[in-house]
Amino acid sequence: GVRLEATNKIVLDLEKLYDAAGEDLAYVARYARAIQQQRGDYNGRVLSIRADDLRALAIVYDISPSGLIERLTEAGVLVADPRAFFAS
Ligand code: C2E
Ligand code: C2E
Ligand code: C2E
To answer: If you average pLDDT over residues 5-22, what whole number do you get?
Structure first.
């Protein structure tokens, strides 16, 4: 069936994020834990987050939202395509 592009959806790899959380991404990790708690979404390997929340997090890091996406990409904690992620 017809499906909207998922490419601009922000999906975090939680295992990688929580492993990397010692350093630069500690606030992202803490935020992700809070979102998991609010949703009751505890068993996921990935977490889709709101664009609004990414914007708020970017303010914490004093960079642009696209700058934060770049940083997350470099740290390898973003999932480009969650379906491909589970197929692999
Ligand atoms: P809420 O914002 O009033 O949303 C109520 C319910 O609407 C959510 O229950 C979810 O089932 C649905 N919902 C709202 N926005 C979206 C969306 O963009 N996509 C999808 N798929 N569903 C949406 P849920 O998930 O149990 O969350 C309960 C409450 O926890 C939310 O109430 C909100 O206050 C908070 N919350 C959950 N996830 C987030 C998040 O990623 N960011 C923020 N800022 N708050 C969140
Ligand atoms: P998708 O968004 O491409 O997500 C693919 C799979 O990644 C999901 O399979 C799920 O296993 C995982 N995933 C993505 N985001 C999260 C997350 O925030 N928490 C957790 N625990 N897992 C996540 P799933 O659940 O079988 O969903 C298949 C497709 O169904 C999704 O593809 C999406 O297109 C749609 N879908 C599922 N739940 C929702 C929803 O609450 N809102 C909307 N709009 N679509 C949904
Ligand atoms: P999604 O569920 O595929 O939703 C895509 C976009 O549709 C959201 O982007 C938001 O702009 C809009 N949307 C969907 N449901 C609602 C709703 O109930 N209320 C409002 N005001 N807008 C809605 P956004 O916010 O960037 O979120 C991206 C993804 O993060 C969502 O994709 C969903 O997978 C996840 N997400 C966001 N908020 C929640 C939430 O409260 N609960 C859960 N379970 N997932 C959420």
So the answer is: 81
Q: Band of the pLDDT at 2, cuts 50, 70, 90?
A: low
The conformation of residue 47, written as its DSSP 8-state character, comes to: E
Predicted confidence (pLDDT) per residue in 67-84, tens digit: 999 999 999 999 988 888
Could you tell me if the ipTM is greater than 0.90? no
Q: How far is the CA of 51 from the centre of ligand 3 (A)?
A: 9
The per-residue pLDDT for 24 is 87
Q: Report the separation in Å between the CA atom of 70 and the middle of ligand 1, taken as the mean of its atom positions.
A: 25
What domains does the chain contain, in order, with CATH numbers?
10-81 (1.10.10.1930)
Q: Which ligand is nearest to the CA of 8?
A: 3
